[in-house]
From TrEMBL:
GO cellular component, one term: cytosol
Protein name: Amine oxidase domain-containing protein
Stretch forming the signal peptide: none
Species: Roseateles puraquae
One Pfam family recorded for the sequence: Amino_oxidase
Amino acid sequence: MTQPSALIIGAGPAGLTAGLELLRAGYPQVTILEATDAIGGISKTVSYKGNRIDIGGHRFFSKSDWVMDWWRDVLPVARPAGGGDARLAYQGQERLLGASQATARESDDAVMLVRSRQSRIFFGGNFFDYPLKPGLDLVRNMGLGRCLQFAGSYMAAAARPIQPERTLEDFFINRFGRQLYLQFFKDYTEKVWGVPCRDISADWGAQRIKSLSIGSAAKQALKKIVTGKTDTQHTSLIESFLYPKYGPGQMWETAAAEFERRGGRLLRGWAVDEIHRREHLVERVVAHDGQGQRQSFDVGHVVSTMPIRELAQALRPAPDAPALAIASGLEYRDFITVGLLYRRMSPKVAGKARHVSDNWIYIQEPGVKVGRVQVFNNWSPYMVADPDTVWLGLEFFARDDDSLWAMSEDALKALAVREMQQLGLADEAELLDATVLRQPKAYPGYFGAAFQRFDELRGWLDGLSNLYLCGRNGMHRYNNQDHSMLSARLAAQAILNGGTGREAIWAVNIDDDYHEEAPTKN
């Protein structure tokens, strides 16, 4: 018998991974529908006058060996300038990336580079370690008296932790103390999500932050002072990572080319708006191109990475009333990047250099709307057309019905330039150019009454026996691109096994760990 066709909705990391895994395994008919003209979803790279924008920043590092190998199979790692093996470093450990006989060079176009990681918090005109940790820098910047208040607040929280730990506010206070929470976590987190920390589940913090706390950081700092070593059993954020030479989109554009070369059909600019089912089986998907043209696709299996809210609303007949109400109530956060090209950053922060060494700068300063600043020069020098300029990405978090999202491009550019001046990070007189990029539904919302009932909706959707949900928006889960790829791999395996094993997809990214911590084999 001929195998039924597989249709994949979305050409981001999850969709392209699922498509390639099916084709590599010999599956004969695979189609990907991508609603936009771009490849990579939120992991795409946008070019503006030769300067490239990475939406949100994408470090290519995973605890999964399978993911690391998959990436290197698509784009090899460039050999270090001095020869030998390329390695990723994290405290006390290293990870080998390739054999010394590898021939890829940085001068090649289709390669990944090993890049150093540095992210810091900017507050009160000073830089602090990210994640926050005790030390002389904290005392120097905040003052001894304020640091003693932080210590006292932390000890009080440690002595009487909030139980049960229900909200993200509880989570932060238990691990950092109320004073540090109010100083460094509350305002920034609420800027990102647009709701109070007390309205966000503690599960989000457990998944993203895990064992990081002032207590654990202090123990590690003391051990390093006394012994000169860190605890290799204690996970810590990575110190270096892989990055495609021309941005994350290069990975997915290369993967898309392989998908088509293997016989897959990739249709750009086709948005799904109807998904027809008979009882518990999806039979047909209908898409439009925005120009009045429509196509209908008979399907055997459907892998969906589209936002669950839109998925449920596209089903014909519709889900039952409770499931549809939950889906319609799910919330999202949208993302605005303002690219600013400068001659240099302010000497007050960069000294004699043209720019600081950070990949990201987390802006904790009150009175500004910007949440983070990316220095694209430090992600890859090839992201910048002219190495004698500084290419920055100012990140603003919004919702599609708020005043920030409604601002014109000129107003957003003016806001970004003004806030850089206000923060003392760059002088307006050094500005050369600016552009604006909007990314709707960048983050699924992990709050609200509908989200509290998400498992009911998931249960209803799981009842559609040939529908596989994967990816960040497809699962309404804070998946990084490696989590999205792992969920897609499991979806492909389930299709190859005739539909069995779908439940394993939901086991991805449920452990209390964070993808930037030390790796394990899987």
